[in-house]
Amino acid sequence: IDKYKDLIEKYPRTKRKEEALYGLGWSYFRLSDFSSSAKVFSQLTNEFPESKYLVEIYARQGDGFYISKIFGKAAEYYQKGAELAPQTEEGQYCAYQLCHALYQQGSYDKAIASLLAYVRKYTNSPYAPNALYLIGWIRFQQKKYADAIEDFNFLIQAYPKSSLIPRAHFA
């Protein structure tokens, strides 16, 4: 962290400043210092609005807020990442995490709608079985048992090799 700070301070106009800010923000994130990470990532996006790291930054900012249980703010950043690069792995991750943030906020109908849209759009995503499972789980929690059973059965049929199959059988 000190080396990144030194580099940024001593050479504020270096062509590597974008990489240094990203490295600094990521370092803070890895240390679970989400506040400092968010500040650095905000600086990076302000100074380099077309940064090649933008989707990753939105994902990490979303993750920081999610881990800190600030789900509304997490959803905002996940939404940005999902919209910016929907066909990339990181963009698909953001779209899936957006659904989770909505669920954690208690916005169950929005979460289900987002999860259904996710599964339709990203059928081959590694997160698709998880999305289907979460739909069933939400409906189970809402005491919509018949719908939950239907959702779990659909998961079993659509993704028979998913590691979630045993859980779907016993939910």
Question: What does this molecule look like?
Answer:
- There is one protein chain.
- The longest helix is centred in the middle third of the chain and has 17 residues.
- The chain is built from ten helices and no strands.
- It starts with a helix and ends with a helix.
- The protein is mainly alpha-helical and 171 residues long.
Write the layout of secondary structure elements.
Layout: H1 2-10, H2 17-30, H3 34-47, H4 54-67, H5 71-84, H6 89-105, H7 108-121, H8 128-141, H9 145-158, H10 165-170
Kindly, what is the distance between the CA atoms of the first and last residues, rounded to a whole number of angstroms? Answer: 46 Å
How would you sum up the global shape? elongated
Order of helices and strands: HHHHHHHHHH
Largest sheet: none
Poorly predicted sequence stretches spanning 5 or more consecutive residues: none
Count of DSSP E strands? 0
- The Rg value, from CA coordinates, equals 19 Å
Mean pLDDT over the residues: 94
Q: What are the salient characteristics of this protein?
A:
171 residues; 10 helices; mainly alpha
Short structural description:
With 171 residues, the chain is an all-alpha fold.
